[in-house]
Amino acid sequence: MHSGWGTLVAVSDDCGLEVIERRHIVVAEANVPGSKQPYHYAENLGFKQAEEYIARCSTASGQLASASVREILSQLSRSEYRVEGCAILMASGRTLPSLDKVLASHAWIHTAEGEFFRGTVHRACEGAGLQVTRFREGELEECAKKIFGKQANQVRQRITTFGKRLGAPWTQDEKLATLAAILVLGIRRTDRSRVGGHGGA
């Protein structure tokens, strides 16, 4: 996620790993001033106004995120894919202080905005019935080693080759989102094998 938008990638392991969808989603309402950086905007408001403004942005962004999630789920369903879960990449995962303390610190404002948009998409996914797995971006490689072992390098190489078929640009955001999605599929596959279940898309 970024300020007001995010990168979304859908991956299938039905017939080998494939990226089946990639797009940008917009989660900031263009008609709301400052909505791409709501805490920066709220910094210049009185505290009560800031609370109301953040709440307004949260509602508007939530509606946009929910619409984007429903759209991609509908598209995947029409293509006969079953969505097993989703991943959201996190930053440091620091717990935010109260709003007055956030607005008093420029560093906290940046952290809060990142959490604002990630939290918005997280709630939209849960609202659509998806199980959400949160990964810290800096821990993705270690997670890949734990889940795939010696095959982790092959998975990373496979992600790199996706760009040749999909076409440029094949951005770092897309590569990280793809790895997170593959990790979710790997976790689900491991869980199914433990209970004697069957694989799926």
* Range of strand content: 5-15%
| Widest beta sheet: strand line-up | 1-2
The H-and-E topology, N to C, reads as EEHHEHHEHHH
Helix content: 55-70%
Helix vs. strand class? alpha+beta
**Any low-confidence stretches, pLDDT <50, length ≥5?**
194-201
What is the β-strand count? 4
How does the major sheet shape up? 2 strands, antiparallel
**What is the end-to-end distance?**
25 Å
Average pLDDT rating: 90
Report Rg. 18 Å
Number of helices: 7
Shape: globular
List strands and helices in order, with pairings.
Elements: E1 5-12, E2 18-26, H1 38-42, H2 47-78, E3 86-90, H3 99-103, H4 106-127, E4 132-136, H5 140-148, H6 152-166, H7 172-195
Parallel strand pairs: 3-4
Antiparallel strand pairs: 1-2
Helix pairs in contact: 2-4, 5-7
Characterization of the model:
This protein has seven helices and four strands; from the N terminus they run ββααβααβααα. The two termini are 25 Å apart. With 201 residues, the chain is an alpha+beta fold. A hairpin with a 5-residue loop joins strand 1 and strand 2 (18-26). Residues 194-201 have low confidence and may be disordered. Strands 1-2 form a two-stranded antiparallel sheet. Strands 3-4 form a two-stranded parallel ribbon. The radius of gyration is 18 Å and the shape is globular. The chain has a domain at 5-138.
